[in-house]
Design brief:
- The protein has four helices and six strands.
- It has helices spanning 3-6, 14-19, 35-46, 86-89, and strands at residues 7-10, 24-29, 50-58, 62-63, 66-67, 71-78.
- The strands form two sheets. A four-stranded antiparallel β-sheet has the order 1-2-6-3. Strands 4-5 form a two-stranded antiparallel sheet.
- A hairpin with a 2-residue loop joins β4 and β5 (66-67).
């Protein structure tokens, strides 16, 4: 599995926007990925240094005709001397 398969998309919510100034970013990741793989993928794709990775499995919602799928969310904190991720800087 390569880095682009692990990091699926950024999660853009009010809570994730609040973390941008503190260099905390949120991504949807592959459900089979662990914290070490997520750290390596973020460092490789964005060229930054990752300090900490936390993960959470988000349960799908009940809809009229079944459920939406479960997905995995990763919150990534960068080191203080690392540069910010440019994609998120344009949003804040």
């Amino acid at each position: 599995m390569n880095s682009y398969d692990i990091i699926r998309r950024p999660v853009l919510t009010e809570k994730s926007y609040a973390g941008i100034p503190a260099k905390v970013y949120t991504f949807e990741v592959a459900t089979s990925a662990n914290k070490v793989e997520i750290k390596k993928a973020v460092e490789e794709i964005f060229g930054v240094k990752v300090e900490k990775v936390t993960t959470a499995t988000v349960n799908g919602k009940l809809k009229r005709q079944g459920h939406t799928p479960d997905w995995k969310k990763a919150t990534v904190k960068l080191t203080s001397d690392s540069k910010a991720i440019e994609f998120f800087e344009s949003l804040s």
